[in-house]
Amino acid sequence: MPEEIVGQKITLKLLESKYFDEYHGMFSSTVRIILGLPETATLEETRDFLSKTVEALNNGENSKYKAFYCVFDNLDGKLIGALDIREPGCKDGQLGTWINENYWGSGRYQEVLNLGLKAYFRSNDIDTINAYVRVANIRSLKAHQKYGFEIVGELEVNCNDCYEIVITRDKVLN
Ligand SMILES: CC(C)(COP(=O)(O)OP(=O)(O)OC[C@H]1O[C@@H](n2cnc3c(N)ncnc32)[C@H](O)[C@@H]1OP(=O)(O)O)[C@@H](O)C(=O)NCCC(=O)NCCS
Predict the structure, then answer these.
(1) Mean of the per-residue pLDDT values for the chain?
(2) Sign for the pseudo-dihedral over CA of 85, 11, 37, 152
(3) Residue 34 C-alpha to ligand 1 middle, in angstroms?
(4) Domain enclosing residue 100, as ranges
(5) Which of 49, 89, 91, 133 is deepest in the core (most CB within 10 A)?
(6) Is residue 134 classed exposed, middle or buried when 0-12, 13-18 and 19+ CB atoms within 10 A define those classes?
(7) How many Å lie between the centroid of ligand 1 and the Cα of residue 28?
(8) Does a structural domain hold residue 77?
(9) Residue 8 has pLDDT above 90, yes or no
């Protein structure tokens, strides 16, 4: 996967330790609650989680993470979200994303998906990618359906009712 992917509205950059503190600042309570995480975390907890993630990424074949990008806004240069892609069969689904609420509904997320998924399918011999979206998370469901994901099932993930949504290589690359 490329180190950096530059789009019109946003730029994806692979996770590095120099982004940890900014990540912490933008990973807001609003986003954390929607994702089912505790409302707040300390800076130390965020740094610890991200350090372990970088370690896992460096672990190559043995890592559940295939890619972990931070999302930067091209206008103000700030870190505004993240997109990570995990191995097929991962218990939490393959795609994980968030965007700080101040940047929702601006077309940025559609570009995040487009750049991230195109790069992923170009670098991996794989036909589909899935995600689990909580049934209550209507905004996320609509955002992914707008991009082209389809609901293929409903299941319980970590005690929450979720849709499994999937997108194909052909849809992303054509
Ligand atoms: C999911 C997320 C990345 C989407 O980013 P976004 O900028 O909000 O997405 P978009 O603007 O592209 O799409 C959202 C769509 O949901 C629609 N929507 C929002 N609330 C809605 C509601 N209550 N009912 C129906 N549609 C709704 C919006 O109108 C928009 O569709 P439109 O552009 O056709 O009008 C962002 O909301 C987020 O980070 N949420 C918290 C973390 C999260 O849920 N991550 C994903 C886990 S599966």
Answers:
(1) 96
(2) negative
(3) 11
(4) 4-127
(5) 133
(6) middle
(7) 16
(8) yes
(9) yes
Residue 95 sits in a domain whose CATH number is: 3.40.630.30
- From atom 19 of ligand 1, which residue's Cα is the shortest distance away? 139
Number of domains in the chain: 1
Backbone angles phi, psi at 137, to 5 degrees: -90, 70
Q: How far is the CA of 93 from the centre of ligand 1 (A)?
A: 18
Residues with CB under 6 A from ligand 1: 31, 34-35, 97-99, 104-105, 109-110, 131, 133, 137-140, 142-143, 146
Strand partners, 107: none
Does residue 168 belong to any structural domain of this protein? no
* pLDDT score at 7: 98
Three-state DSSP class for residue 18: helix
- Measure CA of the first residue to CA of the last residue in the chain; give whole Å: 19
In a domain, 157, yes or no: no
Residue, of 18 and 58, whose pLDDT is higher: 18
